[in-house]
From TrEMBL:
Any one of the GO BP annotations: tRNA N1-guanine methylation
Protein name: tRNA (guanine-N(1)-)-methyltransferase
Record-level Gene Ontology MF annotations: tRNA (guanine(37)-N1)-methyltransferase activity
Functional note: Specifically methylates guanosine-37 in various tRNAs.
Family: Belongs to the RNA methyltransferase TrmD family.
Keyword Protein biosynthesis: no
Alphabetical list of SUPFAM superfamilies matching this protein: alpha/beta knot
Length: 287
């Protein structure tokens, strides 16, 4: 996979040389390159922003500077015909013709999820744009969608950052660790939180010693009975998810739950007699 990142602070992404992300680049699995947006400016001050149309506080990143940069990275001609909005292959899911995917972090966009990370990990080329100030001109993603470029905007949470760099770093790490060969042990991602069709939170983890500062590891984990250990961990995932993210429980398919799962959810106060669990009137989480 090739990843291009555009920012006014490209040095932020020196972190991409560390840990597993750096090792993946050394192995040739991944290529990450950060670009300075100011390299595509033509004025003496290297300006990338201007005042917002209609007034208001702050500054907005200019479309023409971004366009020069993105046209170069995407290999687009400025004379390329503009397609009618809504008919572009950019509106479809999946990746065809090895086309790049253009991604902007935006607090007003849909939430970035594990499902999105999994999908994007199958692309061959991702281009991230890091907004600053009051954000980027809204015509930028509109224009590239009309050129047939798959263009995504994502929020990483209900809060505001100074710029898109930290959000892009989060997305890059979430996506790249799903690339085949990235993780030393691929089984380590199978039971993680939000992974798979069920999207439950992962059970808690422990290591040696079994007793530490008066806190004991649950004895069942040292019993050697793998069946009981698996059930304990499954129950804990259900308990944690019920308490912290009940919205994830509501999306479970009851037809895919076994009798022990259903009994556990009933104990936690869920009605599992329909297609999806819903809050019942009995039981409660005891975590």
């Amino acid at each position: 996979m090739k990843i291009d990142i555009v920012s006014v602070f490209p040095e932020f992404f020196e972190v991409a040389q560390l840990s597993l992300l750096g090792k993946a680049q050394d192995k040739g699995i991944l290529q990450v390159q950060a670009h300075n947006l100011r390299d595509w400016t033509h004025d003496v001050h290297h300006s990338v922003d201007d005042t917002p149309v209609g007034g208001g506080a702050g500054m907005v990143m200019k479309a023409e500077v971004w366009a020069e940069c993105l046209d170069d990275l995407l290999g687009l001609s400025t004379s390329a015909p503009t397609q009618a909005q809504g008919t572009s292959p950019a509106d479809a899911t999946g990746f065809t013709d090895r086309q790049p995917v253009l991604i902007f972090p935006n607090p007003s966009a849909p939430l970035f999820t594990q499902s999105a990370a999994s999908e994007l990990s199958q692309a061959e080329h991702l281009i991230f744009g890091c907004g600053r100030y009051e954000g980027y001109d809204a015509r930028i993603p509109t224009y590239y969608r009309r050129q047939g470029i798959q263009t995504r905007e994502y929020s990483i949470g209900d809060y505001i950052l100074n710029g898109g760099e930290a959000a892009v770093a989060v997305m890059v790490e979430a996506i790249t660790r799903l690339i085949p060969g990235f993780m030393g042990n691929p089984n380590s991602i199978i039971e993680e939180s939000y992974t798979g069709d069920e999207s439950l939170l992962e059970y808690r983890q422990y290591t040696r010693p079994s007793s530490w500062r008066g806190i004991e590891v649950p004895s069942i984990l040292t019993s050697g009975d793998h069946g009981k250990v698996d059930r304990f961990r499954r129950d804990e995932s259900l308990e944690l998810t019920s308490r912290i993210r009940p919205d994830l429980i509501e999306h479970l398919d009851c037809n895919r739950l076994d009798i022990k799962d259903k009994n556990k959810l009933r104990d936690l106060g869920w009605n599992v007699d329909g297609s999806h669990p819903r809050h019942g009137t009995q039981g409660r989480s005891h975590l």
